[in-house]
Design a protein that fits this description.
- There is one protein chain.
- The protein has one helix at 5-24, and strands spanning 30-32, 35-44, 47-56, 62-68, 79-87, 98-106, 115-119, 125-129.
- It is an alpha+beta fold.
- The protein has one domain (30-129): Immunoglobulin-like (Sandwich), CATH 2.60.40.
- Strands 1, 4, 5, 7 and 8 form a 5-stranded mixed beta sheet that branches. The chain has a 3-stranded antiparallel beta sheet with strand order 2-3-6, with no helix packed on it.
- The longest helix is centred in the N-terminal third of the chain and has 20 residues, at 5-24.
- The radius of gyration is 22 Å and the shape is elongated.
């Protein structure tokens, strides 16, 4: 079975068109988690690990991230802020409230840090102090 030169060209053009369409798609921006349900803080050898669980409105949310806020000046209250975000699903998903989890590890945590404040959307904020269970 021989493939003609014209068939090869048609195939190559369709592949390049598909790749071009994919390249033009905008990256999916993460959205703020609906609510922060819980957080766990672990301190070991000067390293702080923050793990948070959040609530999202449907199944299928991906790439949850817990991002530490960078300050120009350390906060007076000693509370480090975090934003909790994830990427929305892009298709048909189960319409059921679901949970996502994300962590951040902070080596050489500064002495001024007394706790963390994790921000979700609206009233979805959770404050957790170091040493608190």
């Amino acid at each position: 079975m021989a493939i003609t030169h014209q068939a090869q060209l048609v195939f190559m053009v369709s592949v390049l068109t598909s790749l071009s369409a994919l390249a033009e798609e905008k990256p999916v921006e993460p959205v703020t988690i609906k609510a922060v349900i819980s957080a766990k803080l672990e301190v070991a050898q000067g390293t702080l690990t923050v793990t948070a669980v959040g609530e999202v409105p449907t199944a299928g949310y991906a790439k949850p991230t817990l991002t530490r806020v960078t300050y120009i000046r350390q906060p007076d209250d000693g509370i480090q802020d975090y934003t909790f975000r994830a990427v929305r699903p892009s298709g048909i998903v189960a319409q059921v409230v679901s949970q996502v989890e994300a962590s951040d590890t902070w080596k050489a945590v500064p002495a001024w840090v007394k706790g963390v404040r994790i921000h979700g959307a609206g009233k979805g904020v959770l404050v957790k102090m170091l040493g608190e269970k």
